[in-house]
Amino acid sequence: MEGLEKFDSPGKGRGLRVTRPFKVGELLLSCPAYAAVLSAKERGSCCEFCFTRKEGLARCGKCKKASYCNKKCQKGDWAMHKLECSAMTAFGEKWCPSETTRLVARILATKKMQKEPCVSEKMMLIEELQSHLEDEDNEKRERTEADIAGLYRFYSKHLEIPDHKGLLQLFSQVACNGFTVEDDELSQMGTAIYPDVALINHSCLPSVIVTYNGASAEVRAVKDMKPGDEVLISYIDLLSPTEERNTRLRESYYFTCDCQECKSKSKDKVKLKVRKQSDPIEPQVISNMVRYARNKIREFRALKHVKTPSELLEICEQTLDEMGAVFDDSNVYMLHMMYQAMGVCIYMQDADGAIRYGEKILKPYSQLYPPYSLNVSSMYLKMGRIYMGVERHSEAVSAFKKALTIMEVVHGKDHPYVKDVHKEMGQK
């Protein structure tokens, strides 16, 4: 890792810092996954090996489920795919390990392949990854036990499975250090482990951003950095107000952030903006509405795979009407529900509805997220593609240009996603 070094970060454990200056957009680190797994929902749309999304992929001749760009990708993935190929055929529709279980199986297989004749540095890092096994609550432990049962059920013929204590440790390490591999619109493509990237600590004022080129992770600066500066990423969505960000960090990563933004809470007031009314809204009314909003967001997530799209859209609209009596349209809870409504409209191929919600989201997103945010670029991409679909070409090109302003920094100018957007801009 040229230009980088490991060090003991005060109060955070191990971390990375730069040993030379880095400019905005400059690549600090690029590394392949130690182990990666394509999400089951992406099967047939993406290559299992390189995660490239395209048409005309060739299916595995045995299981007929895994798909590849070409024979080179299929050969490259065989060491991992063979863990699942015969099992998928044997179990048929009953083959249902979780994505976490699938990733752990691949980690175990990779460890076995790398064990002899020497232990690689990356394997050492896998063993040293942070674990919070002792901090996990009963609910998390129950999920892990279910995942372990899936590992034995679907993989025992092909893997040397560690003892129970070792498995609990490994699943905890994956929970704390796994990365969600996302595409240009932030749709989940898979999950992976990158031991080098896992060294990077969290801040709500990040200095770098992690993006993906296929199944490889790339880390680029989103701030100018000088020698000695710590490399910091955000582990969570930065749109949330301070209290919610830290609740999420405690629940998932077992720490509280003490960055300058968390200390000052400087953006919380604008994030929780209320409607202007002749009589000021009582604080109790605001806190009640915040509680209502959080409950409705949790409820929506629980119902997402149960209700029909039209029912989900109705939930969004009713919630927005209720919150809109107190919250301004730029309030983060309004934005969250509008984003969900936009997603439902896209699924229903309701371009007018998606555009209506998207146009309300874009300006607040640009103000509330950091300057080089994937959340903002993905929104401009979505809008550009919807505009293009309804032949509003000038608006599409304008949205694409705004997306590219961010993407050329966070992905790099030569990234396939950037090249794809340039091609889309030229379509008539």
TrEMBL record:
One of its GO terms (molecular function) is zinc ion binding. Residues 2-236 form the SET domain. Its EC number is 2.1.1.354. GO terms for cellular component: nucleus. TPR repeats lie at residues 377-410. Pfam families: SET, zf-MYND. Transmembrane segments: none annotated. GO terms for biological process: methylation. Signal peptide: none annotated. It catalyses: L-lysyl(4)-[histone H3] + 3 S-adenosyl-L-methionine = N(6),N(6),N(6)-trimethyl-L-lysyl(4)-[histone H3] + 3 S-adenosyl-L-homocysteine + 3 H(+). Keywords: Metal-binding, Methyltransferase, S-adenosyl-L-methionine, TPR repeat, Transferase, Zinc, Zinc-finger. SMART domains: SET. PROSITE patterns: SET, TPR, ZF_MYND_2. Residues 47-85 form the MYND-type domain. This is [histone H3]-lysine(4) N-trimethyltransferase. It comes from Kryptolebias marmoratus.
